[in-house]
């Protein structure tokens, strides 16, 4: 499969649904010129399938990044534009993640429909699948749309309560979304640099913090399922770019 580079995340506004494919079992792929944000960063309702079966000879032990192989087939989906995003406002406080304002905007619903039909074209759920969305309103709404279009029973929607939360941006909470470029500039220096803190309960997470979360998520999925298809629905792009970077062994700072 091919890992496709995309425009730099220094321009954060969301874009239409786009398909990205990758396999960690294809060493001939050149990835040295690809940074993690060019994989998915500013994309809305993006889909990245991972076809990386784990050889039977490989024991299933503690999950580590990058993995030797994967037991399941994965699709990474970035939920469509939220109401907050349509206003150009940063909103990452988990206290508000189930609020109506964190739901899909009219544009976000159209973007998610496009992604859902793209998944259907790719026969992602042809032989059944599990949908793991963040409990964040827009991500769960996206999961319901994906399930409806792909004929997936609602019992196969498994809400994730913390590991898929949008990256907490600390003191940037409530500010213009254009300021995300300042955070990304810090990320280039070190994956351990956190945004400035704030006292309203919004986490201030570094890339390394998010990496721990998504690694824990993958550990759960790889332990709970085997030979299945799992669609991961995230409310933001950072979760997905960091996850995909970890899976293919890219430098998290980039």
UniProtKB/TrEMBL annotation:
Pfam families listed in its UniProt record: His_Phos_1
- Give the top-rank taxon of the lineage listed in the UniProt record for this protein: Eukaryota
Q: What is the annotated signal peptide range for this record?
A: none
Spell out the InterPro entries in the cross-references. Answer: His_Pase_superF_clade-1, His_PPase_superfam
Looking up SUPFAM superfamilies in the UniProt record yields: Phosphoglycerate mutase-like
PANTHER family in alphabetical order: PHOSPHOGLYCERATE MUTASE FAMILY PROTEIN (PTHR47580:SF1)
Put simply, this protein is called: Phosphoglycerate mutase (2,3-diphosphoglycerate-dependent)
Which lineage ranks, top first, belong to the organism behind this chain?
Answer: Eukaryota, Viridiplantae, Streptophyta, Embryophyta, Tracheophyta
